[in-house]
């Protein structure tokens, strides 16, 4: 396990102010981005805190030279930030994981859409921030389980998946980041607002992707 310590910024002008709640250790933001990377892509670590930080990684890796603070993970790595401030006994702790992908072969990942009723259809919209994904990660195929027809929209492309054709390569080469939209018609026995005939609250889409060379 490696650790990085940085000097604390002061928020209290005098000792008695340390008892003020606003001076307790606090993590307002802790980011390691991108968090989904291809092997060889570094991630930048940033935070906004009150207190003294200590950053550790498991497994242990050393930061790259220079600024900003960057790490080049070669396997899935958990980053943990501890923030302390005297005289408080309990530190604030935040964790985030960087997942490292090595391809070929393609990586398979299901993504879940929370569905809402719109007229006679179910619609799910899923934003995936560009800062989270390495731009080298590119789609190969998308697929459903074949149980219902659905239309997938992403990066100005679309594909309709059916029971007879449950997968599509229409998004090949597109990035994982961006807004995804999934639309599926209500089934014959599904009715919105009727608990006895409620449509599914979630629909799963399976994606296959690779790290572009």
The CATH first-level class of the largest domain comes to Mainly Beta
The overall average pLDDT, rounded, is 91
Distance between the termini: 31 Å
Please mark out the parts with pLDDT under 50 across 5 or more consecutive residues, or reply none.
Answer: 7-20
Instruction: Tell me the overall shape.
Output: globular
**Overall domain count:** 2
Total of DSSP H or I helical runs spanning 4+ residues: 0
Q: Helical amount among residues, as a percent range?
A: under 10%
What is the topology, as strand order, of the major beta sheet?
1-5-7-8-3
Briefly note the CATH topology name of the largest domain.
Jelly Rolls
What is the SS-derived class?
A: mainly beta
Strand count, sense and barrel status of the largest sheet are: 5 strands, mixed
Radius of gyration in whole Å, from Cα?
A: 23 Å
What does this structure look like?
By secondary structure, the protein is mainly beta. It has 2 domains: 2-101, Immunoglobulin-like (Sandwich); 107-211, Jelly Rolls (Sandwich), CATH 2.60.120. 0% of the residues lie in helices and 50% in strands. The protein contains no helices and 17 strands. The strands form 4 sheets. A 5-stranded mixed beta sheet has the order 1-5-7-8-3, with no helix packed on it. It has a 5-stranded antiparallel beta sheet with strand order 10-11-16-13-14, with no helix packed on it. Strands 9-17-12-15 form a 4-stranded antiparallel beta sheet, with no helix packed on it. A hairpin with a 2-residue loop joins strand 10 (116-118) and strand 11. The model is unreliable at 7-20 (pLDDT under 50).
């Amino acid at each position: 396990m490696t650790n990085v310590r940085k000097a604390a910024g002061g928020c209290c002008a005098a000792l008695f102010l340390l008892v003020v709640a606003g001076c307790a250790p606090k993590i307002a933001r802790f980011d390691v981005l991108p968090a989904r990377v291809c092997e060889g892509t570094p991630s930048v670590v940033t935070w906004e805190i009150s207190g003294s930080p200590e950053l550790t990684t498991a497994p242990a890796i050393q930061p790259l030279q220079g600024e900003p603070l960057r790490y080049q993970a070669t396997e899935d790595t958990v980053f943990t930030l501890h923030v302390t401030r005297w005289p408080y006994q309990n530190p604030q702790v935040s964790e985030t994981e960087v997942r490292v992908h090595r391809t070929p072969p393609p990586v398979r990942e299901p993504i879940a859409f929370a569905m809402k009723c719109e007229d006679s259809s179910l619609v799910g919209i899923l934003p995936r921030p560009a800062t989270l994904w390495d731009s080298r990660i590119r789609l190969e195929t998308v697929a459903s389980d074949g149980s219902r027809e659905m239309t997938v929209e992403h990066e100005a492309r679309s594909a309709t998946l059916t029971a007879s054709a449950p997968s599509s390569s229409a998004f090949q080469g597109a990035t994982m980041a961006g807004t995804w939209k999934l639309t599926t018609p209500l089934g014959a026995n599904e009715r919105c607002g009727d608990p006895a005939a409620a449509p599914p609250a979630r629909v799963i889409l399976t994606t296959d992707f690779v790290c572009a060379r």
